[in-house]
Amino acid sequence: MKIPLFFAATALLAAPLHAKLTPPEARMAATVDAEYERSVALLQKLVDQNSGSMNLAGVEAVGKMVRAELEPLGFTVAWKPMTAIKRAGHLIATRPGKAGARRLLLIGHLDTVFEQDSPFQKFVRTGDKAEGPGAGDDKGGMVVMIAALRAMRAAGTLDAANIEIVLTGDEEDSGDPIALGRADLIAAGKRADVALDFEGLFVENGQDMGSIARRSSNSWTLKTSGKTGHSSLIFNDTYGDGAINELTRILAAFRTELPEPNLTFNTGIVAGGASAVLDADGVRATATGKSNVIPSIAIARGDFRTLSEAQTARVKTRMSAIVARHAPGTGAELMFEPGGYPAMAPTPGNRALLDRLNGVNKDLGLAAMPPLDPLRRGAGDISFVASDVDGLIGLGPASSGDHAPGETVDLASMRRQAKRAAILMTRLGTAR
After folding, report:
1. 293 within 8 A of 231, measured Cβ to Cβ
2. Where is the signal peptide (predicted)?
3. What does 224-285 look like in DSSP terms, one character per residue?
4. Using an 8 Å Cβ cutoff, are 331 and 224 in contact?
């Protein structure tokens, strides 16, 4: 039985508070600096290969580039096709280490939000900044991961580490069913003792922040119905409120009755009238109607995000109760879509990992990283393993403008992030 990390927090924090870098750790830091331009060149190569989630060949091509970096480091690399969910696949790499060493799971993703028809396609560097699709999210994160592993090899600490890497090919637009698409990641989480997610570092007011939680992402669809007829008859006992008025009443009730800490909810698309239809993907709507006809149907689709699975269940119950109070002469149906992203709660074990990272920061001469408000992060792949293993998020580089043309990575941040990751993995990857 795996012992949760927070039970071992005292042991994790037992290292001397004022320890300096060991000779191997100093070697790792020096290697990261010496190979900085090599890392930037690799990032450019990855960015210049389009790998929008639906560019299946492009995602696989990026996977091959990463394979070429990992195999010389002693990893056994496999490609797991995901044709069953209409996605490219995932890259899974393993490197067994010293017997009894903690099992480290490293998480990232190969795909970006920028598809082949996006005008934003190329890496453009200006000093220690660079624009490019996925330069920060998450190709920069993969480069930090690889730079850290190279530094560990140079310092002689990689051989002892027991590492599994899962790089998904559809993090930005997951295939359906998501349970199939994340089955390999979930299985890896059950094998691991620590999970480290190499998505981007958050920086607030010049301060690097530590991330120990991610919120869930849950989609819902609300449909209301009403009795159609001439508009002069609306609100009477026979015709009632009409579908659109009932839909807006329910949405307004969500806004006034649902709010609680760490919860956000959003209505993303609405349609209603004599007819209303959402497309199969739920992102486009068509409707017909006239101003003098009571609408017979209305549809809304949105999401909500929570910090724990208990909060998710509570919010679903409250939303369902609001919908059940539909007005006379109307009907209402609320559907929660399967396959959302679970929550990663800020557990004691995750906090202990951040404490351990701050020990690394102290020895590197860097400021301590306070925990980031989870409202600042969206959903992510590490949440699929959060119920099984303690983890940290945000080991990738700092960036700005993610998911939009002009996405810019702070190249210099790759240095400190790779140093942090290499030393942290070395310290964690010892015998338990």
Report:
1. yes
2. 1-19
3. EEE---BGGGTTSTTTTT-HHHHHHHHHHHHHHH---TT-EEEEEEEEEESEEEE-TTSS-E
4. yes
275-302 pLDDT tens trace = 999 998 888 999 999 999 999 999 999 9
Average pLDDT, the chain: 93
- If phi > 0 it is left, if psi is from -120 to 50 it is alpha, else beta; for residue 100 that is left
Encode pLDDT of 378-420 as tens digits. Answer: 889 999 999 999 999 999 999 999 999 999 999 999 999 999 9
Task: Compute the distance between CA of residue 237 and CA of residue 227 in angstroms, rounded to an integer.
Answer: 11
| Total residue length of the chain | 432
Domains belonging to the chain, first-starting first, are 5-214+343-428 (3.40.630.10), 218-336 (3.30.70.360)
Note the pLDDT tens digit of each residue in 170-195. Answer: 999 999 999 999 999 999 999 999 99
* Tokens 């002069």, residue located: 232
Q: What's 58's DSSP letter? A: H
pLDDT in tens, 340-383: 899 999 999 999 999 999 999 999 999 999 999 998 888 899 99
**343 SS3 class:** coil
Taking phi first (over 0 means left), then psi (-120 to 50 degrees means alpha), and beta for anything else, what does residue 134 get?
A: left
Instruction: Please give the Cα distance from 214 to 381 (Å, whole number).
Output: 10
Q: What whole-number distance in Å separates Cα of residue 165 and Cα of residue 176?
A: 22
232 CB neighbour count, 10 Å cutoff = 9
Structure tokens at 126: 């200006």
Of 68, 115, 61, 108, the closest CA to residue 88 belongs to 61
